[in-house]
Amino acid sequence: MRVEVDRDLCESNAVCVGIAPDVFDLDDEDLAVVTVDEVPPAREEDVRSAVQLCPKIALTLLEDD
Ligand code: SF4
Question: Which superkingdom, per the lineage (predicted)?
Fold first, then answer.
């Protein structure tokens, strides 16, 4: 599973970083970035929570086939 950030929607509140700091970070522009290529299986549950809780609906899951 992978996850993407729509940087046009992100409002830098770091909700995702708070839930999964090993997957998300804020960059020099204070916008969220994904710091892993593939989400580790053990982190998928928290990443799904971050996707659901992002106030701007800026996160998208890319499920494996
Ligand atoms: S939770 Fe959403 S709006 Fe907030 S920093 Fe993460 S991607 Fe951006």
Answer: Bacteria
